[in-house]
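Form 7-S
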Amino acid sequence: MTIPWTLPEIIAFHRMSKLCASEFIKAVNGSAGYTDAVQRIGVIEFDALQVATELVVGLERDGFQCTTYWDAAYPERLRILDQPPPILYHVGPLPHSALPSVAVVGTRRCTIQYGKPATEMLVREWVNKGIVIVSGLANGIDIIAHETCVQSGGCTVAVIASGLKRVTPLAAQKMIERLLKIGGCVVTEYAPMLAAIPPNFPARNRIISGLSDAVVVVESNVKGGALITADFAIKQGKPLYALPGPILSVRSAGTNNLIKRGLAELLQGAEDIYASLDLDTEMPPSKVAEDKLINWPQNGANFSLDELAEYWVCSVSEALGKLLQFEFSGAVKQLPGKRFESVR
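Output:
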């Protein structure tokens, strides 16, 4: 959709207006432009537009990207939410809507004997099916899910509660470097220099669920951030699964309770989610990716990265992300000279 706004104007108005996501989008859509919108909410602009312009210059300098609700590249899964984030700051290509995705979340203090190996087993099998893994880059289950996905050559999306230049802890910073090398993405609705504060985490969790076709809770106490993600999954109408655990383990109390109350489906194996994602349990990964590989320029031909980016009308980094996702699934192979060909 097209609106008569520049990116700095959208960012400046967002910072000034203090409106919730849905109200902000409505205000932008209902205005004749930036000046009209500012006048309608009755705020004094001061240097907001200059600051936003400098922010955009900084994004380009740091290799970050900014995608707004009004851009064609904005994820369709988020666009349909009650409170879609109007602005997404990200590094790496946003996940393609044609690829199945699963959120894997859980406690920061997972069990080494159960939660960790269970997460690793599940994620490995899902990656082999060409599924994108979404999580929150926190310690515990999140980091294990990202780590296993990277080790398995899969594509993972990390949704963070801070700006891209304020990522913590150190393990998360190192994970970002690795996941970007294989076409992953780190995304946030917060400007680069903003630190994570407590209210940001629940807001972040709606995006984790929103970007996913299904949500899986591995381990959780009776109260915890993973259960907030589970609540968003229920509100958003996403299939919710929980891994059952020992009745004596406090870190399985939350997941067991979700199952007991009928809020989540019992997850006994990786294949339990395939029906929700419309995946054939007998279909090999290459066939899954082939079915998802749309709009390849021409059968039997091979193309350079620049040619594919031009054909898909996207940036080179976005084209590379798509190619990496299809390549590890076996739907695309790389030829000498950095050219790519569809395997059908």
